[in-house]
Design a protein that fits this description.
Elements: E1 5-12, H1 18-27, E2 34-39, H2 46-52, E3 64-67, H3 76-88, E4 96-100, H4 107-113, E5 123-133, H5 134-138, H6 146-153, H7 165-175, E6 178-182, H8 190-200, E7 206-209, H9 217-220, E8 262-269, H10 275-289, E9 293-299, E10 305-312, E11 315-323, E12 332-339, H11 344-350
Parallel strand pairs: 1-4, 1-5, 2-3, 2-4, 5-6, 6-7
Antiparallel strand pairs: 8-12, 9-10, 9-12, 10-11
Amino acid sequence: MPAKIPATVVTGFLGAGKTTLIRHMLDNANGKRIALIINEFGDVGVDGEILRGCGDAACRDEDIMELSNGCICCTVADEFIPTMEKLLSRPDAPDHIVIETSGLALPQPLVRAFNWPEISTRVTVDGVITVLDGKAVEDGLFAHSPEAVDAQRAQDSNLDHETPLSELFDDQIAAADMIVVNKADLMADPDALVSRLKSQARDGVQVLKSSMGALPLDVLLGQGAGAETDLEGRHEVHHHHGDDDHAVDDHDDAHHHDHDEFETFAVNLGEIADPAAYTAQLAQVIRTHDILRLKGFAAVSGKPMRLAIQAVGPRVDSYYDRPFAARENRATQLVVIGLAGLDHAAIRKALQP
């Protein structure tokens, strides 16, 4: 059976910067075919036009689908599932699907929709990314303009307009595999909010600071969460909806590609003896040094097959992918991705089998 196509759900309140973050993904796709499903209200698809504006093969018109008949989690059967079926049936299927929800949409019902039989065998939720307007949250507002949120709420009669923003915020945090504190450059103390969110989120959820949504593609995509199979931990505070996002972000300089806050380095090691013990060791190293991603291959003593390793936060997955070639070097090669300032020497030493 072909591998399932990964899908990333991007959620967050009005003006948080979801569209800018997605535009940044497209600008740095490096040949990856990314299809977009955008949920916004009204006759003018602002986000779709912003994303189509990049003008290259990464955002072809046929790869951008807009759902504008209401909150995506209220139109799963009527709009979302048929759109997904159409996308998945294309002969040139995408490498990755990115779904930008309206801020009014709860992530949990959308994630549950991936268990519908029409699509469950063909696509999986790679991860849920919750984007926050860091400055607004720091100021206790959740969204930069509560008035704009209320105005957008009034456009969809399916919504419970009385739901407090704080409950919607909690739902978005509960569903997240990654939380992006955007507009960190405008905040007085972004690290304080990052620490608070880490304590509030599920174990293993990564909380990152961002300006202009400028985060590396390798960090945003490839989380491998399989969120549709992990619904129990993504509890909902309620079953209503509430806040919206689809206007031009005030931080819409989508060409800001400063990744200086991240770094990547490779580690070459010898063979490992015990895969289970070594993956447990990797999880501890990741926790100790706050590593975002770790991926690569290992040679296991006495085994002809190469062991593939993928780690997102402290969750480490491994499997044998293929035999080593006759003249191939039997070595362990890992790539470490994290925030700038990683202690390379300490990490290299800790990764020794």
